[in-house]
């Protein structure tokens, strides 16, 4: 089977997580800014689309070269054997971006790459007339950074965060792959209690449950490459069957999402049902200040409102203070809170064990981590009530 140069793209700050996920799937990786490179076959393309929880897309790196003039961009793009990737009827939209480069006009770069591909395909397929572009879609991107050009083919289609279970999302939703990253950055294991005190539309508890039951995040959706004529349907079916067999649907999980708004709890329940996790997660209406627990060794993950607008700031900081008060007695629990409010610790009332810089969309946020001190049984097991 042909091997491709591949890359998994991701949000800034979680590249190491994507790299770890790929290594756990058995790949050798090179972690770079906003992406992780690896090699693989068609089967690997489908497998990584199906299994990666924190990545955005899987792209084939078609060609990389330096270009400082449009002539150079045209000639080097035309050199590529596009006919090996694109059938005669392929629809191939070209997206572009450019940073710190002499070729800074993105529309021109896109047009030139498109023209070069059309020329190569027309020569190879002996076409005198226009290419039909009526077939499957092959999204191409030209990315230019410091005069280095990278031509890629996107195998994913809709970004991987679109798992397919979110029917409704409410106010300021967290992307599913970011929610998965927040869970994977904690010490949580499936035998520990897990709480999201401000669960909104339920994304963090749902992602925790998918991790806890080892369910492939891409299981309920399709990828654009599955429509390509050189991607065999039986490979896709085989990988989905294997993913189904690897899921542990019987594992007992203790995952709860709370929100002050009953409407959000209803939305969470609908989304969990759509994800096939309706009976796995509990959702309850409750304000943060009313939370208490006798359980031990739990994990709290929260993405509270950030108070970006000054009018919201006071109520949000009051919420941070309530969190600090309510979580203080939970000595064996670890708490992880994402916010863009750099003064969070002051209002929460104590300094984080560790902070990690993450980007929630374009917004710079910090993940404040407060590590608990778990209590162990004498046999070396964690005590769980």
TrEMBL record:
This is N6-adenine-specific DNA methylase. One of its GO terms (biological process) is methylation. Gene3D superfamilies: 3.30.2130.30, Vaccinia Virus protein VP39. Signal peptide: none annotated. Keywords: Methyltransferase, RNA-binding, Transferase. Residues 44-155 form the THUMP domain. GO terms for molecular function: methyltransferase activity. Pfam families: RlmL_1st (PF22020), THUMP (PF02926), UPF0020 (PF01170). It comes from the Bacteria.
């Amino acid at each position: 089977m042909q091997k491709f140069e591949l890359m998994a793209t991701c949000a800034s700050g979680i590249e190491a997580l994507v790299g770890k996920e790929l290594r756990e799937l058995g790949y050798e990786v090179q972690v770079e800014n906003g992406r992780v490179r690896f090699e693989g076959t068609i089967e690997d393309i489908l497998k990584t689309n199906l299994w990666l929880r924190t990545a955005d897309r899987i792209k084939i790196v078609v060609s990389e070269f330096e270009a400082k003039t449009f002539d150079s961009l045209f000639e080097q793009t035309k050199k590529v054997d596009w006919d090996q990737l694109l059938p005669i009827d392929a629809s191939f939209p070209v997206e572009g971006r450019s940073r710190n480069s002499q070729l800074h006009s993105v529309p021109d770069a896109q047009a030139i790459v498109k023209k070069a591909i059309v020329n190569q395909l027309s020569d190879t397929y002996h076409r005198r007339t226009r290419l039909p572009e009526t077939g499957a879609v092959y999204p191409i991107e030209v990315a230019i950074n410091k005069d280095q050009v990278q031509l890629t083919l996107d195998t994913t289609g809709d970004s991987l965060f679109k798992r397919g279970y979110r029917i409704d999302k409410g106010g300021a939703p967290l992307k599913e792959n970011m929610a998965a990253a927040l869970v994977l950055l904690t010490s949580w294991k499936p035998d520990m209690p897990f709480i999201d005190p401000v669960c909104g539309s339920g994304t963090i508890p749902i992602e925790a449950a998918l991790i806890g039951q080892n369910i492939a995040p891409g299981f309920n959706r399709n990828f654009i490459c599955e429509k390509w004529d050189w991607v065999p349907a039986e490979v896709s079916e085989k990988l989905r069957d294997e993913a189904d067999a690897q899921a542990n649907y019987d594992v007992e999980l203790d995952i709860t999402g709370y929100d002050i708004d009953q409407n959000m709890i209803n939305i969470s329940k609908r989304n969990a049902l759509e994800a096939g996790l309706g009976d796995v997660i509990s959702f309850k209406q409750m304000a943060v200040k009313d939370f208490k627990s006798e359980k031990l060794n739990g994990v709290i993950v929260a993405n509270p409102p950030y108070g970006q607008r000054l009018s919201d700031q006071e109520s949000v900081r009051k919420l941070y203070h309530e969190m600090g008060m309510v979580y203080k007695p939970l000595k064996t629990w670890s708490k992880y809170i994402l916010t863009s409010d750099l003064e969070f610790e002051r209002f929460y009332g104590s300094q984080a064990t560790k902070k990690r810089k993450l980007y929630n969309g374009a917004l710079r946020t910090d993940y404040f981590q407060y590590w608990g001190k778990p209590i162990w049984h004498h046999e070396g097991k964690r005590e769980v009530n």
